[in-house]
Amino acid sequence: MDANPNTDTASPNTDPKAANRARFELELEFVQALANPFYLHSLAQQNILEQPAFINFLQYLLYFKEKDYARFIHYPHALHHLELLQHAQFRSQMKKDEFLREYLHQKQFDHWRTWREPTSVNSSNPEGMVSEEPDAETKPAL
């Protein structure tokens, strides 16, 4: 049975709304991939970060920093790395310095490990020490 190219189903090429959605999803997926320092290093090793067209594309993707688009980002480090990629010095350093890749990875890991720990949020108890005095709930009733 031959496929009929004139079917009623709209393809992304003919439906502008579907095409915009597909493009947005593709760009969102790429921006989120930038959260991975190993991916950034790979792009640098392949000289992709030196291509003027790619640099322009990275600048275009800054729209994800706007509130209406940032809400779709699941990995906030992606936006940080996107901002760093706007700088030629960072792009060139990423290519030749594996230490930078490891540093970004470690900082990211440390953030994910501690971002919800009460001790890192509670500034009144900076070292995470347990108070010597028990809470009112744990005190025995007199």
TrEMBL record:
Subunit structure: Component of the Mediator complex.
Role played: Component of the Mediator complex, a coactivator involved in the regulated transcription of nearly all RNA polymerase II-dependent genes. Mediator functions as a bridge to convey information from gene-specific regulatory proteins to the basal RNA polymerase II transcription machinery. Mediator is recruited to promoters by direct interactions with regulatory proteins and serves as a scaffold for the assembly of a functional preinitiation complex with RNA polymerase II and the general transcription factors.
UniProt GO cellular component terms: mediator complex
Record's compositionally biased regions (Polar residues): 117-126
Organism superkingdom: Eukaryota
Protein name: Mediator of RNA polymerase II transcription subunit 31
Principal subcellular localisation of the protein: nucleus
Entry's Gene Ontology BP terms: regulation of DNA-templated transcription
Keyword entries, A-Z: Activator, Nucleus, Transcription, Transcription regulation
Keyword Lyase (UniProt): no
Family of this protein: Belongs to the Mediator complex subunit 31 family.
